Amino acid sequence: MQKNTYELLKDKFHISERILKLIDESEDAVSQLFQEIDDTTSYNQYKILEAFQNNRIRDMHFSWNTGYGYDDAGRDAVERVYADVFHTEAALVRPIIVNGTHALTLTLTGILRPGDELIYCTGAPYDTLEEVIGIRGEGKGSLKDFGVSYKQVELADDGSIDLEALGKAMGPNTAMVTVQRATGYGWRKAISIEEIQRCFDFVKERNSGIVCMVDNCYGEFLHVKEPTDVGADVLAGSLIKNPGGGLALTGGYIAGREDLIEKISYRMTSPGIGGECGLTFGQTRSILQGLFIAPRTVNGAVKGAVLCAKVFEALGYDVCPAASDIRSDIIQAVKLGSPEKVIAFCQGIQAAAPVDSHVTPEPWDMPGYEDPVIMAAGAFVQGSSIELSADGPIRPPYVVYFQGGLTYEHSKFGVIKALQQLENAGSL
Protein backbone atom coordinates (compact mmCIF):
# COMPACT_ATOMS: atom_id res chain seq x y z
CA MET A 1 0.00 0.00 0.00
CA GLN A 2 1.42 3.38 -0.97
CA LYS A 3 2.30 5.76 1.83
CA ASN A 4 -0.27 8.36 0.78
CA THR A 5 -3.06 5.78 0.75
CA TYR A 6 -1.91 4.40 4.09
CA GLU A 7 -1.95 7.84 5.69
CA LEU A 8 -5.35 8.70 4.19
CA LEU A 9 -6.95 5.53 5.55
CA LYS A 10 -5.35 6.01 8.94
CA ASP A 11 -6.04 9.74 9.35
CA LYS A 12 -9.33 10.28 7.51
CA PHE A 13 -11.05 6.94 8.04
CA HIS A 14 -9.45 6.11 11.43
CA ILE A 15 -8.23 2.65 10.42
CA SER A 16 -5.82 1.11 12.88
CA GLU A 17 -2.26 0.32 11.87
CA ARG A 18 -2.80 -3.31 12.85
CA ILE A 19 -5.56 -3.67 10.26
CA LEU A 20 -3.62 -1.85 7.52
CA LYS A 21 -0.63 -4.10 8.10
CA LEU A 22 -2.85 -7.20 7.95
CA ILE A 23 -4.33 -6.01 4.64
CA ASP A 24 -0.87 -5.42 3.15
CA GLU A 25 0.37 -8.84 4.18
CA SER A 26 -2.75 -10.54 2.84
CA GLU A 27 -2.54 -8.74 -0.52
CA ASP A 28 1.06 -9.84 -0.95
CA ALA A 29 0.07 -13.44 -0.21
CA VAL A 30 -2.61 -13.56 -2.92
CA SER A 31 -0.85 -11.61 -5.68
CA GLN A 32 -0.46 -14.69 -7.91
CA LEU A 33 -4.16 -15.49 -7.54
CA PHE A 34 -4.96 -11.94 -8.63
CA GLN A 35 -2.99 -12.47 -11.85
CA GLU A 36 -5.04 -15.58 -12.65
CA ILE A 37 -8.25 -13.60 -12.10
CA ASP A 38 -6.96 -10.91 -14.47
CA ASP A 39 -6.36 -13.52 -17.18
CA THR A 40 -9.99 -14.71 -16.97
CA THR A 41 -11.19 -11.10 -17.09
CA SER A 42 -9.28 -10.48 -20.33
CA TYR A 43 -10.85 -13.49 -22.02
CA ASN A 44 -14.39 -12.52 -21.02
CA GLN A 45 -13.88 -8.89 -22.01
CA TYR A 46 -12.90 -9.88 -25.53
CA LYS A 47 -15.70 -12.46 -25.74
CA ILE A 48 -18.26 -9.78 -24.94
CA LEU A 49 -16.65 -7.32 -27.34
CA GLU A 50 -16.96 -9.89 -30.11
CA ALA A 51 -20.67 -10.31 -29.38
CA PHE A 52 -21.21 -6.55 -29.61
CA GLN A 53 -19.35 -6.30 -32.90
CA ASN A 54 -20.98 -9.37 -34.43
CA ASN A 55 -24.41 -7.88 -33.69
CA ARG A 56 -23.41 -4.46 -35.05
CA ILE A 57 -24.50 -2.55 -31.96
CA ARG A 58 -25.02 1.10 -32.81
CA ASP A 59 -26.52 4.27 -31.37
CA MET A 60 -30.03 3.49 -32.61
CA HIS A 61 -30.16 0.53 -30.20
CA PHE A 62 -30.21 2.93 -27.27
CA SER A 63 -33.57 4.39 -28.32
CA TRP A 64 -36.91 3.01 -27.22
CA ASN A 65 -40.54 3.04 -28.21
CA THR A 66 -43.86 3.05 -26.38
CA GLY A 67 -47.05 1.06 -25.95
CA TYR A 68 -46.74 -2.63 -26.62
CA GLY A 69 -43.08 -2.49 -27.53
CA TYR A 70 -43.44 -4.07 -30.96
CA ASP A 71 -40.33 -3.91 -33.15
CA ASP A 72 -38.08 -2.69 -30.34
CA ALA A 73 -34.70 -2.84 -32.10
CA GLY A 74 -32.74 -2.16 -28.90
CA ARG A 75 -34.45 -4.92 -26.96
CA ASP A 76 -33.89 -7.40 -29.77
CA ALA A 77 -30.22 -6.40 -30.04
CA VAL A 78 -29.67 -6.83 -26.30
CA GLU A 79 -31.13 -10.33 -26.45
CA ARG A 80 -29.01 -11.30 -29.45
CA VAL A 81 -25.87 -10.12 -27.64
CA TYR A 82 -26.77 -12.11 -24.52
CA ALA A 83 -27.46 -15.20 -26.60
CA ASP A 84 -24.05 -14.82 -28.23
CA VAL A 85 -22.22 -14.23 -24.95
CA PHE A 86 -23.75 -17.36 -23.41
CA HIS A 87 -23.52 -19.32 -26.69
CA THR A 88 -27.23 -20.10 -26.78
CA GLU A 89 -29.95 -20.02 -29.42
CA ALA A 90 -32.03 -17.33 -27.74
CA ALA A 91 -32.36 -15.11 -24.68
CA LEU A 92 -34.80 -12.93 -22.78
CA VAL A 93 -33.28 -9.81 -21.18
CA ARG A 94 -35.92 -7.55 -19.70
CA PRO A 95 -36.35 -4.81 -17.12
CA ILE A 96 -39.81 -6.26 -16.46
CA ILE A 97 -38.08 -9.27 -14.89
CA VAL A 98 -37.85 -7.80 -11.42
CA ASN A 99 -35.02 -9.89 -9.91
CA GLY A 100 -33.17 -13.18 -10.06
CA THR A 101 -35.95 -15.04 -8.23
CA HIS A 102 -38.41 -13.81 -10.86
CA ALA A 103 -36.14 -14.97 -13.70
CA LEU A 104 -35.85 -18.40 -12.09
CA THR A 105 -39.59 -18.55 -11.44
CA LEU A 106 -40.36 -17.77 -15.08
CA THR A 107 -37.94 -20.48 -16.15
CA LEU A 108 -39.43 -23.11 -13.85
CA THR A 109 -43.09 -22.26 -14.46
CA GLY A 110 -42.57 -21.70 -18.17
CA ILE A 111 -41.09 -25.14 -18.79
CA LEU A 112 -42.62 -27.47 -16.20
CA ARG A 113 -46.13 -28.89 -16.54
CA PRO A 114 -48.55 -30.70 -14.17
CA GLY A 115 -47.24 -34.17 -13.43
CA ASP A 116 -43.62 -33.19 -14.05
CA GLU A 117 -40.92 -33.65 -11.44
CA LEU A 118 -38.23 -31.10 -10.59
CA ILE A 119 -34.98 -32.19 -8.94
CA TYR A 120 -32.55 -29.79 -7.29
CA CYS A 121 -29.27 -31.70 -7.18
CA THR A 122 -27.32 -29.13 -5.11
CA GLY A 123 -29.29 -29.40 -1.89
CA ALA A 124 -31.76 -26.81 -0.68
CA PRO A 125 -32.45 -23.91 -3.04
CA TYR A 126 -31.98 -20.28 -2.05
CA ASP A 127 -34.54 -19.19 0.57
CA THR A 128 -36.66 -17.13 -1.84
CA LEU A 129 -37.19 -20.18 -4.10
CA GLU A 130 -38.79 -22.24 -1.34
CA GLU A 131 -42.22 -20.68 -1.79
CA VAL A 132 -41.87 -20.77 -5.57
CA ILE A 133 -41.34 -24.53 -5.44
CA GLY A 134 -43.83 -25.10 -2.61
CA ILE A 135 -41.44 -26.29 0.07
CA ARG A 136 -43.17 -23.79 2.36
CA GLY A 137 -46.21 -21.59 1.97
CA GLU A 138 -49.59 -22.82 0.75
CA GLY A 139 -51.96 -21.65 -1.94
CA LYS A 140 -49.67 -19.05 -3.47
CA GLY A 141 -49.37 -20.42 -6.98
CA SER A 142 -46.28 -22.51 -6.34
CA LEU A 143 -45.14 -25.37 -8.53
CA LYS A 144 -46.64 -27.69 -5.94
CA ASP A 145 -50.03 -25.97 -6.32
CA PHE A 146 -49.92 -26.72 -10.03
CA GLY A 147 -49.04 -30.37 -9.65
CA VAL A 148 -45.27 -30.28 -10.12
CA SER A 149 -43.50 -32.58 -7.67
CA TYR A 150 -40.10 -31.86 -6.15
CA LYS A 151 -37.09 -33.84 -4.99
CA GLN A 152 -33.92 -32.56 -3.40
CA VAL A 153 -30.59 -34.35 -3.64
CA GLU A 154 -28.05 -33.29 -1.04
CA LEU A 155 -24.45 -32.71 -1.96
CA ALA A 156 -21.88 -35.34 -1.13
CA ASP A 157 -19.69 -34.90 1.94
CA ASP A 158 -16.94 -33.36 -0.18
CA GLY A 159 -19.34 -30.71 -1.57
CA SER A 160 -19.66 -32.30 -5.00
CA ILE A 161 -22.92 -33.27 -6.70
CA ASP A 162 -23.83 -36.79 -5.57
CA LEU A 163 -24.38 -38.50 -8.91
CA GLU A 164 -25.24 -41.86 -7.36
CA ALA A 165 -28.00 -40.27 -5.28
CA LEU A 166 -29.15 -38.21 -8.26
CA GLY A 167 -29.41 -41.33 -10.42
CA LYS A 168 -31.59 -43.00 -7.78
CA ALA A 169 -33.80 -39.91 -7.50
CA MET A 170 -34.42 -39.61 -11.25
CA GLY A 171 -37.59 -41.28 -12.42
CA PRO A 172 -40.00 -41.46 -15.35
CA ASN A 173 -41.59 -38.10 -14.45
CA THR A 174 -38.32 -36.22 -13.98
CA ALA A 175 -38.54 -33.29 -16.38
CA MET A 176 -35.85 -30.95 -15.05
CA VAL A 177 -32.64 -31.18 -13.05
CA THR A 178 -31.46 -27.89 -11.62
CA VAL A 179 -28.07 -26.77 -10.31
CA GLN A 180 -27.83 -23.75 -8.04
CA ARG A 181 -24.35 -22.54 -8.78
CA ALA A 182 -23.93 -20.09 -5.89
CA THR A 183 -23.90 -21.04 -2.26
CA GLY A 184 -26.96 -19.09 -1.15
CA TYR A 185 -26.96 -19.19 2.62
CA GLY A 186 -25.19 -22.54 2.64
CA TRP A 187 -21.70 -23.44 3.82
CA ARG A 188 -20.15 -24.82 0.67
CA LYS A 189 -18.08 -23.81 -2.30
CA ALA A 190 -19.98 -22.74 -5.40
CA ILE A 191 -20.51 -25.38 -8.04
CA SER A 192 -17.75 -25.27 -10.64
CA ILE A 193 -18.14 -25.40 -14.39
CA GLU A 194 -16.42 -28.80 -14.41
CA GLU A 195 -18.89 -30.12 -11.84
CA ILE A 196 -21.85 -28.81 -13.85
CA GLN A 197 -20.55 -30.57 -16.97
CA ARG A 198 -20.05 -33.83 -15.10
CA CYS A 199 -23.59 -33.65 -13.70
CA PHE A 200 -25.34 -32.82 -16.97
CA ASP A 201 -23.38 -35.43 -18.93
CA PHE A 202 -24.63 -37.95 -16.35
CA VAL A 203 -28.24 -36.76 -16.69
CA LYS A 204 -28.27 -36.71 -20.50
CA GLU A 205 -26.75 -40.19 -20.73
CA ARG A 206 -29.75 -41.50 -18.81
CA ASN A 207 -32.47 -39.38 -20.35
CA SER A 208 -31.69 -36.85 -23.07
CA GLY A 209 -35.17 -35.33 -22.74
CA ILE A 210 -34.58 -33.97 -19.22
CA VAL A 211 -34.04 -30.21 -19.18
CA CYS A 212 -30.79 -29.24 -17.45
CA MET A 213 -31.14 -25.81 -15.83
CA VAL A 214 -28.70 -23.60 -13.91
CA ASP A 215 -29.38 -20.82 -11.44
CA ASN A 216 -26.42 -18.73 -12.61
CA CYS A 217 -26.78 -15.88 -10.10
CA TYR A 218 -23.38 -14.59 -8.87
CA GLY A 219 -21.51 -16.94 -11.22
CA GLU A 220 -21.21 -15.06 -14.49
CA PHE A 221 -17.72 -14.37 -15.88
CA LEU A 222 -15.72 -16.14 -13.18
CA HIS A 223 -14.62 -18.69 -15.75
CA VAL A 224 -13.88 -18.66 -19.47
CA LYS A 225 -16.92 -20.91 -19.92
CA GLU A 226 -20.54 -20.56 -18.79
CA PRO A 227 -22.90 -23.43 -17.91
CA THR A 228 -24.47 -23.31 -21.37
CA ASP A 229 -21.04 -24.14 -22.80
CA VAL A 230 -20.99 -27.44 -20.90
CA GLY A 231 -24.47 -28.90 -21.25
CA ALA A 232 -26.99 -26.58 -19.58
CA ASP A 233 -30.13 -26.22 -21.69
CA VAL A 234 -31.15 -22.98 -19.97
CA LEU A 235 -29.84 -20.63 -17.30
CA ALA A 236 -31.14 -17.55 -15.54
CA GLY A 237 -29.85 -14.68 -13.46
CA SER A 238 -30.21 -11.07 -12.36
CA LEU A 239 -28.99 -7.93 -14.10
CA ILE A 240 -28.21 -6.27 -10.77
CA LYS A 241 -25.67 -8.97 -10.09
CA ASN A 242 -22.64 -9.77 -12.24
CA PRO A 243 -23.83 -9.22 -15.83
CA GLY A 244 -25.26 -5.75 -15.22
CA GLY A 245 -21.84 -4.43 -14.29
CA GLY A 246 -23.39 -2.10 -11.71
CA LEU A 247 -25.03 0.00 -14.44
CA ALA A 248 -28.24 -1.92 -15.15
CA LEU A 249 -30.98 -0.36 -13.03
CA THR A 250 -33.09 -3.51 -12.79
CA GLY A 251 -33.95 -6.65 -14.70
CA GLY A 252 -33.12 -10.27 -15.27
CA TYR A 253 -32.00 -12.54 -18.07
CA ILE A 254 -32.72 -16.06 -19.27
CA ALA A 255 -30.69 -17.74 -22.01
CA GLY A 256 -30.94 -21.16 -23.58
CA ARG A 257 -32.52 -23.35 -26.22
CA GLU A 258 -34.94 -21.52 -28.49
CA ASP A 259 -37.90 -23.80 -27.75
CA LEU A 260 -37.43 -23.35 -24.00
CA ILE A 261 -37.06 -19.57 -24.28
CA GLU A 262 -40.30 -19.47 -26.28
CA LYS A 263 -42.16 -21.35 -23.53
CA ILE A 264 -40.71 -19.06 -20.87
CA SER A 265 -41.65 -15.97 -22.88
CA TYR A 266 -45.28 -17.15 -22.91
CA ARG A 267 -45.19 -17.29 -19.12
CA MET A 268 -43.52 -13.86 -18.99
CA THR A 269 -46.30 -12.20 -21.01
CA SER A 270 -49.00 -14.48 -22.39
CA PRO A 271 -49.39 -17.40 -24.81
CA GLY A 272 -49.27 -16.23 -28.38
CA ILE A 273 -47.44 -12.99 -27.51
CA GLY A 274 -44.31 -14.14 -25.73
CA GLY A 275 -41.25 -11.96 -26.28
CA GLU A 276 -42.77 -9.87 -29.05
CA CYS A 277 -44.06 -7.30 -26.54
CA GLY A 278 -42.55 -5.58 -23.55
CA LEU A 279 -40.94 -2.17 -23.27
CA THR A 280 -37.36 -1.67 -22.21
CA PHE A 281 -38.11 1.83 -20.86
CA GLY A 282 -34.89 3.31 -22.18
CA GLN A 283 -32.71 0.79 -20.34
CA THR A 284 -30.91 -0.72 -23.33
CA ARG A 285 -27.96 1.65 -23.03
CA SER A 286 -27.29 0.89 -19.36
CA ILE A 287 -27.91 -2.84 -19.87
CA LEU A 288 -25.45 -3.05 -22.75
CA GLN A 289 -22.85 -0.77 -21.18
CA GLY A 290 -23.15 -2.71 -17.94
CA LEU A 291 -22.60 -6.00 -19.76
CA PHE A 292 -19.59 -4.53 -21.55
CA ILE A 293 -17.83 -3.58 -18.30
CA ALA A 294 -19.11 -6.59 -16.34
CA PRO A 295 -15.89 -8.65 -16.60
CA ARG A 296 -13.87 -5.84 -15.01
CA THR A 297 -16.51 -5.27 -12.32
CA VAL A 298 -16.60 -8.99 -11.52
CA ASN A 299 -12.79 -8.90 -11.38
CA GLY A 300 -12.90 -6.38 -8.53
CA ALA A 301 -15.55 -8.33 -6.66
CA VAL A 302 -13.66 -11.63 -6.93
CA LYS A 303 -10.38 -10.07 -5.82
CA GLY A 304 -12.18 -8.52 -2.86
CA ALA A 305 -13.61 -11.92 -1.92
CA VAL A 306 -10.16 -13.52 -2.10
CA LEU A 307 -8.71 -10.78 0.10
CA CYS A 308 -11.55 -11.19 2.59
CA ALA A 309 -10.88 -14.91 2.79
CA LYS A 310 -7.15 -14.44 3.28
CA VAL A 311 -7.56 -11.84 6.02
CA PHE A 312 -10.04 -13.86 8.04
CA GLU A 313 -8.01 -17.05 7.56
CA ALA A 314 -5.09 -15.18 9.08
CA LEU A 315 -7.29 -14.25 12.03
CA GLY A 316 -8.23 -17.89 12.62
CA TYR A 317 -11.80 -17.91 11.27
CA ASP A 318 -13.30 -20.61 9.09
CA VAL A 319 -13.98 -19.29 5.60
CA CYS A 320 -15.63 -20.78 2.54
CA PRO A 321 -14.17 -20.90 -0.02
CA ALA A 322 -10.56 -20.73 1.14
CA ALA A 323 -8.46 -17.94 -0.32
CA SER A 324 -6.61 -20.39 -2.59
CA ASP A 325 -9.72 -22.23 -3.85
CA ILE A 326 -10.96 -21.94 -7.42
CA ARG A 327 -14.02 -19.70 -7.34
CA SER A 328 -17.34 -20.12 -9.13
CA ASP A 329 -19.24 -17.22 -7.60
CA ILE A 330 -18.39 -13.85 -6.05
CA ILE A 331 -19.57 -14.75 -2.54
CA GLN A 332 -17.25 -15.12 0.44
CA ALA A 333 -18.64 -16.76 3.55
CA VAL A 334 -17.03 -16.20 6.95
CA LYS A 335 -18.13 -18.19 9.99
CA LEU A 336 -18.06 -15.53 12.73
CA GLY A 337 -19.73 -17.58 15.46
CA SER A 338 -22.01 -15.00 17.08
CA PRO A 339 -24.86 -12.69 16.07
CA GLU A 340 -22.95 -9.71 17.47
CA LYS A 341 -20.03 -10.32 15.10
CA VAL A 342 -22.32 -10.77 12.08
CA ILE A 343 -24.03 -7.48 12.91
CA ALA A 344 -20.72 -5.67 13.47
CA PHE A 345 -19.32 -6.97 10.18
CA CYS A 346 -22.38 -5.82 8.24
CA GLN A 347 -22.36 -2.45 9.95
CA GLY A 348 -18.74 -2.03 8.86
CA ILE A 349 -19.70 -2.79 5.26
CA GLN A 350 -22.50 -0.23 5.42
CA ALA A 351 -20.08 2.37 6.77
CA ALA A 352 -17.85 1.72 3.73
CA ALA A 353 -20.62 2.55 1.25
CA PRO A 354 -20.77 5.61 -1.01
CA VAL A 355 -24.55 5.79 -0.45
CA ASP A 356 -26.27 5.66 2.96
CA SER A 357 -23.00 5.18 4.80
CA HIS A 358 -24.59 6.88 7.81
CA VAL A 359 -27.28 4.18 8.12
CA THR A 360 -26.90 1.43 10.73
CA PRO A 361 -28.34 -1.89 9.50
CA GLU A 362 -30.09 -4.23 11.92
CA PRO A 363 -31.62 -7.69 11.45
CA TRP A 364 -35.28 -7.80 10.39
CA ASP A 365 -37.92 -10.21 9.10
CA MET A 366 -37.51 -9.90 5.34
CA PRO A 367 -40.24 -11.29 3.06
CA GLY A 368 -39.23 -14.65 1.60
CA TYR A 369 -36.77 -15.53 4.39
CA GLU A 370 -37.34 -17.93 7.26
CA ASP A 371 -35.04 -16.21 9.78
CA PRO A 372 -34.29 -12.56 10.54
CA VAL A 373 -31.72 -11.29 8.06
CA ILE A 374 -29.29 -8.41 8.24
CA MET A 375 -28.36 -6.76 4.98
CA ALA A 376 -25.78 -4.05 4.43
CA ALA A 377 -25.67 -2.31 1.08
CA GLY A 378 -25.19 1.35 0.35
CA ALA A 379 -25.64 1.01 -3.38
CA PHE A 380 -26.40 3.21 -6.37
CA VAL A 381 -28.94 0.57 -7.42
CA GLN A 382 -31.02 -0.77 -4.54
CA GLY A 383 -30.34 -4.45 -3.88
CA SER A 384 -27.48 -4.61 -6.36
CA SER A 385 -25.35 -7.52 -5.19
CA ILE A 386 -22.51 -6.68 -7.57
CA GLU A 387 -22.04 -3.53 -5.53
CA LEU A 388 -20.39 -3.89 -2.14
CA SER A 389 -22.71 -5.66 0.28
CA ALA A 390 -22.87 -8.18 3.09
CA ASP A 391 -25.73 -10.09 4.60
CA GLY A 392 -26.64 -13.16 6.54
CA PRO A 393 -29.45 -14.88 8.43
CA ILE A 394 -29.27 -14.56 12.19
CA ARG A 395 -29.04 -18.27 12.93
CA PRO A 396 -26.25 -20.58 14.09
CA PRO A 397 -23.41 -20.93 13.18
CA TYR A 398 -23.69 -17.19 12.39
CA VAL A 399 -22.15 -16.91 8.96
CA VAL A 400 -21.82 -13.63 7.09
CA TYR A 401 -21.80 -13.49 3.30
CA PHE A 402 -19.63 -10.82 1.70
CA GLN A 403 -19.86 -9.93 -1.98
CA GLY A 404 -19.48 -7.28 -4.62
CA GLY A 405 -17.63 -4.06 -5.12
CA LEU A 406 -17.75 -2.08 -8.36
CA THR A 407 -13.97 -1.74 -8.07
CA TYR A 408 -11.37 -3.79 -6.25
CA GLU A 409 -10.40 -0.74 -4.22
CA HIS A 410 -13.92 -0.42 -2.87
CA SER A 411 -14.28 -4.13 -2.16
CA LYS A 412 -10.97 -3.95 -0.29
CA PHE A 413 -12.20 -0.95 1.68
CA GLY A 414 -15.25 -2.98 2.68
CA VAL A 415 -12.98 -5.61 4.21
CA ILE A 416 -11.03 -2.87 5.99
CA LYS A 417 -14.14 -1.25 7.48
CA ALA A 418 -15.61 -4.60 8.54
CA LEU A 419 -12.37 -5.36 10.38
CA GLN A 420 -12.36 -1.94 11.99
CA GLN A 421 -15.97 -2.30 13.15
CA LEU A 422 -15.15 -5.68 14.69
CA GLU A 423 -12.09 -4.20 16.39
CA ASN A 424 -14.11 -1.25 17.71
CA ALA A 425 -16.64 -3.71 19.15
CA GLY A 426 -13.85 -5.68 20.86
CA SER A 427 -14.59 -8.70 18.67
CA LEU A 428 -11.52 -8.94 16.46
Provide an overview of this structure.
Helices cover 39% and strands 13% of the residues. The protein has helices at 3-11, 17-29, 31-54, 73-85, 100-111, 130-133, 163-169, 193-206, 258-268, 284-314, 339-351, 408-424; strands spanning 90-94, 117-120, 149-152, 174-180, 211-215, 234-238, 252-256, 318-320, 332-335, 373-376, 389-393, 399-403. α8 (193-206) links the parallel β4 and β5 (211-215).
Q: Could you provide a short overview of the structure?
A:
This protein is α/β, with parallel strands linked by helices and 428 residues long. It contains twelve helices and twelve strands. The strands form two sheets. It has a seven-stranded mixed β-sheet with strand order 1-7-6-5-4-2-3, with helices on both faces.
Topology summary:
Blueprint: H1 3-11, H2 17-29, H3 31-54, H4 73-85, E1 90-94, H5 100-111, E2 117-120, H6 130-133, E3 149-152, H7 163-169, E4 174-180, H8 193-206, E5 211-215, E6 234-238, E7 252-256, H9 258-268, H10 284-314, E8 318-320, E9 332-335, H11 339-351, E10 373-376, E11 389-393, E12 399-403, H12 408-424
Parallel strand pairs: 2-3, 2-4, 4-5, 5-6
Antiparallel strand pairs: 1-7, 6-7, 8-9, 9-12, 10-11, 11-12
Helix pairs in contact: 2-10, 3-4, 3-10, 5-9, 10-12, 11-12
